[in-house]
Amino acid sequence: MSNALVVNQVTKEFGKPDKPFWKRMFNGKSAETNGHKPKKVVAVDQVSFAVQEGEIFGVLGPNGSGKSTLIRLIATLLLPDGGDIQVLGYDVVRQPMKVQRVINRVSVEASFFKKLSPMENLIYGARLYGMNGRDTKRRVVEILTRLGLEERSIYAPMEEMSRGMQQKVAIARALLSKPRILLLDEPTTGLDPRSKREVQAVVRELNEEHGTTMLLTTHDMVEADDLCDRVAIMDGGKVVALDTPEALKKVIPNKNGHQPDLEEVFLELTGKDLVKEDDR
Questions:
Q1: Largest CA distance in the chain
Q2: Distance of CA 225 to CAs 195, 212, 231, Å?
Q3: On the CB side of 276, how many CA atoms lie within 13 Å of its CA?
Q4: The pTM is what?
Q5: For the segment 18-32, what is each residue's pLDDT rounded down to a tens digit?
Q6: Taking Cα atoms as reference points, which of 109, 104, 112, 102 lies closest to residue 169?
Q7: Domains along the chain with CATH numbers
Q8: 3-class DSSP state of 81
Q9: Measured distance CA(40)–CA(45) in Å, rounded
Q10: What is the pLDDT of residues 162-182, one digit of tens each?
Q11: What are phi and psi of 146, to 5 degrees?
């Protein structure tokens, strides 16, 4: 089986001022004129892995681990400072337009025209991919209904919907273009248990019936265990472990006949709790 995604020694740094803004601008002097230089924050530190076609690959990590930055690099939203990323053979730096044609991304930061309905938002998105006509409208209804939206909600303004419902529309928008690779950055964050199950069922269905390759970041250990073929654990911008969920759970010896779960493995490897907030 060939690789859909190859991440090779990728590094990404961000500049970070070493003093608060008000201190740096005190008396009208900037940090530079006072001899202070911005500190560098290494968000992704020489990360390497490959994702096979048709695989659901999970990335777990505490806040600040770099997993969301990694997603943005793959999605061509950021440029790597070092290393290279290949998406279905296309280079994200030299061939960004070709990469964008074969991927789509869902994140907790999904934005919409809030005065418009889900149908209107998705039709607008579909036209950007060259899709239109009755078949597109039928598919919009089909996907939104599959995700648990009632028909009346499909035609109501987005501003009247909960954040969880808006997240479902974001997922529907990504599915509409039938991407070969789907980047899911915390896709079920903020959803109620029923909505979460519905989204996870669609993810499985898309993978099993259409062979869509997926890269999933999540704070939900049960979700990672249930959905992912393999999981990479990130901490401090580095991959500290990578294997199948079952293999990772064998990293910690059984205690009194108790089989460790992924959360216990995560805590053992990172010494940190998962915090359900956006990381950098």
A1: 65
A2: 18, 18, 8
A3: 8
A4: 0.81
A5: 445 445 445 555 445
A6: 112
A7: 3-109+180-270 (3.40.50.300)
A8: coil
A9: 12
A10: 777 787 888 888 878 778 999
A11: -60, -30
